[in-house]
Design a protein that fits this description.
The chain is an alpha+beta fold and 247 residues long. It has two domains: 2-73 and 206-246, no CATH class; 78-201, no CATH class. It is 27% helix and 26% strand. The protein has helices at residues 2-27, 207-246; strands at residues 40-45, 62-68, 78-80, 87-89, 94-99, 102-106, 112-113, 119-120, 128-129, 132-133, 144-145, 150-153, 156-160, 163-165, 173-174, 180-181, 187-188, 195-197, 199-201. The strands form eight sheets. The chain has a four-stranded antiparallel β-sheet with strand order 6-5-14-17, with no helix packed on it. A hairpin with a 4-residue loop joins strand 11 (144-145) and strand 12 (150-153). It is elongated and about 95 Å long. The two termini are 24 Å apart.
Length: 247
């Protein structure tokens, strides 16, 4: 019975982890450029006892272990806004942004200008150009971004947005606020990289799929809880009957 409780507990822990991932995906359905995550689990076979004096052979026990939460890097749908500072990137390209932790990367293309005149993401991170942050003066107007990433205003060019790519995008680590870190700096996307202006990429979370997964996980958790409750009840009855026979 103890084995049944341990196996059930390992399953419950995995389901709680999956529930956290689903909840985060649902919470970011409306976050532009957000990439959904999924849960990956594996079977862990408990080691066999080494003693050979048992009347019957040991039975292997299967537990559930968390193998990670891979990112779905597929593109979300484009939403056209007409805003000259909204941009959608080619598949596989990322914007380089400055954060308190250093350079990070994002596909969130709904941009704006902060109080210091910097071109920033919705999270407030300055977008990096080929020469650093892109800054507008107080008297400048009509800011816009060209398909090749050139940023300009009524007073001329202010820089070019730096786009990067990664040889292994799956290795990117999410750090919250819709930004990723990488073990090695991204490589320039090259002159062929283009931007679609007046639009941004929406989250690639499929709300209906996530809600269905949410219901399935909740039901699975309830089923395991019921199984553990019945197992505990059987153990209590066994102990009671054993005590009655001893008295």
């Amino acid at each position: 019975m103890e084995n049944a409780l341990l196996v059930g507990l390992s399953r419950q822990m995995a389901l709680v982890r999956e529930l956290d991932v689903i909840a985060n995906n649902i919470a970011n359905v409306g976050t532009n450029g957000f990439k959904a995550r999924s849960s990956r689990f594996a079977e862990y076979i408990s080691p066999s006892a080494r003693a050979d004096t048992f009347p019957t052979g040991d039975r292997r026990l299967s537990y559930v272990i968390d193998k990670g939460t891979p990112i779905d890097l597929s593109m979300g749908t484009l939403e056209r806004t007409g805003n000259p500072l909204d941009i959608a990137l080619d598949a596989g390209n990322y914007l380089a942004v400055q954060t308190p932790q250093g350079e990070r990367y994002t596909r969130a293309g709904a941009l704006g200008i902060n109080a210091r005149g910097q071109l920033v993401t919705q999270s407030g991170h300055p977008v990096l150009g080929e020469g650093g942050p892109i800054v507008f003066g107080e008297s400048e107007s009509n800011p816009r971004i060209a398909p090749d990433g050139t940023v300009s205003s009524d007073q001329g060019q202010r820089g070019r947005i730096r786009q990067v790519r990664f040889a292994d995008p799956a290795s990117l680590r999410s750090e919250g606020e819709n930004v990723f870190s990488a073990a090695a700096p991204g490589q320039p996307a090259g002159p062929q990289a283009r931007l679609e202006t007046g639009a941004f990429e929406r989250s690639n979370v499929k709300a209906v799929v996530e809600m269905t997964r949410l219901v399935e996980v909740q039901r699975a958790y309830q089923n395991v809880s019921s199984l553990l409750a019945r197992t505990d009840e059987l153990r209590a009855k066994a102990i009671t009957r054993l005590a009655d026979q001893q008295s």
